[in-house]
Amino acid sequence: MIExxxxxxxxxxxxxxxxxxxxxxxRLLPLAPGRVIWPGPDLGLCLTLIWVLRRPEQAPVLTxxxxxxxxxxxxxxxIGLSAAIVVLGSEAARKREHRWRExxxxxxxxxxxxxxxxxxxxxxxxxxxFFLTPPPLGQAMLQFIATIxxxxxxxxxxxxxxxxxxxTAERDARTR
Length: 176
Known about the structure:
Layout: H1 4-28, H2 43-54, H3 61-74, H4 81-100, H5 105-129, H6 137-161, H7 168-175
């Protein structure tokens, strides 16, 4: 029989994978063919960072790398580039997760915004270094703004619907 802590970890990881793949499927649907004026937020990245900050044991680095590698292939991006950037960013967040727990949500949001900005700059820099055409700066900035605006909404939904609260008291009570 599976012990309860391991079962929770496996079920949480399966839920994270299912939600990420659902978001990826939604992105692949041709809902608005033609030119996109306002790019939507990167909900998969929001979900990944929230999961890493709330339940780091349920989002292992190999799972994140595999999901973003699949996303790179399906969205026809340079294979492995955004996967590597997201892995580095999520591991930086995971490393500081225990320090971010006690801080107010606004501080977490500011730190995630800074992390997303650094990830976007790294992506643009590496695309330029390898002589690949980066997306237009205006489109990238609009997606960045949409992503940081969506982060609190995704965090609220994750806390309310999925049971991923911020506080350590609730987390400690669940692991006992």
